[in-house]
Amino acid sequence: MKSVKRIAIVPFPALGDVTICLRLAQHLTNSGYEVTLFANLITSATLNFPWLTLGNLPNDPENLISTYDLILLDVLSPWVKKHLVDLEASKNILLFTSKNYSKSLPTKTFSNKDLISQSSGTFTNRPLCLDKNSTKSMVDWVDEYGLEVLGVKADSSLPAVTFHQPKQVKNLVVVFPTTPNPKKNFSIKGFNKLANQLVSMGFQVEVIVMPHEKELLEDKFGTINVKTFQEIAHLIEYLRSAKVVISNDSGGGHLAAMLGIPTITITRKNKNFVWRPGYNLGNVVSPIITLKFGGEHIWRPFISIKKIESITKKIMRNS
Q1: Hey, is 105 helix, strand or coil?
Q2: In sequence order, which residues have a C-beta less than 8 Å from that of residue 293 and are 6 or more positions away?
Q3: Of 162, 194, 227, 256, which residue is 20 to 30 A from 234 by alpha carbon distance?
């Protein structure tokens, strides 16, 4: 990429996807490129990532096209889909997706084309993950993508984060009990039982939810402290104190792993599913069995609370 100096990345606007692209930005920055990550949900964290420029997506895509030598675009990003016709006319775009690959992408421009067979100049448009059934995590896949597509080597270290607040709490267990996809979520009843069990074991447990969920879930969790954060920067500073993060398959787990915090992910998928938190800090708890009835998967009753307690105790002992 001799002619490339300034690079923009536009990820899918979900926290897990953004953390994966933060890692790619780290590799590019370490290789000498000037990188801007356009992800509105994380722009408040500018001071936490001083090595990286964080930007809000512009209304006019020409602002990106005229400013950057190379623009990496997740084709499933709503902003990219909205402006794809204009973006496609540019010669400096490279298309990828962090989601499961499909030949029928949800845009008119690409609906009948094979993403992998296209190219942008000397680069190949392709998804980050080429085989969702492999044992690699998305962190592994983005490392491979950086090397094979962009020619930048992976750095084994975590993305550098600058904190501005001291650690506040000892033995803190943080629980993220919700995601926007109800099918992925362990039951609130199960999370509540787990939280109270961990409190009885001497741990401080706090639950993190979206602002619009707080009032309802405060009632559900009773005496367990339920918190919410309006800005991602405040969540990052808060998570610094956590010894372990327990979550569904969600952005909270990915953010914690990126910050170097051990995670426990509750999911009906197997322990090697591709979107598990990476960095070798993740533990996955899956159901002992899964039943299928009426087209629905029944898995939540078969999650072992005792197994999660055991993993939490082990992490605490080793921290």
Answers
A1: coil
A2: none
A3: 194
Residue 121, both tokens: 């100049």
Report yes or no: 268 and 302 within 8 Å, Cβ to Cβ.
no
- Measured CA to CA in angstroms, residue 279 lies from 17, 189, 253, 254, 257 at distances of 15, 30, 11, 10, 7
- Written as six digits, the tokens of 190 are 């199960």
Is the sign of the CA dihedral 259, 261, 265, 270 positive or negative? positive
Encoded tokens for 57: 């997506």
Per-residue model confidence as pLDDT tens digits over 273-283: 999 998 888 99
Residue 75, burial from CB neighbour count under 10 angstroms (0-12, 13-18, 19+): buried
Tokens of 144: 């491979």
88 vs 79: CA distance, rounded Å: 13
Q: Tens digits of per-residue pLDDT, 118-176?
A: 434 455 778 898 888 899 999 999 999 999 989 999 988 888 999 998 887 788 999 99
User: Residue 127's closest CA among 135, 136, 138?
Assistant: 138
Domains in the chain: ranges and CATH: 6-150 (3.40.50), 172-318 (3.40.50.2000)
Cα separation of 128 and 99, whole Å? 8
Q: How far apart are CA 192 and CA 139, in angstroms?
A: 30
| CB 290 within 8 Å of CB 302 | yes
Give the distance from CA 131 to its chain's centroid. 18
By percentage, how much of the chain surpasses pLDDT 70?
Answer: 92
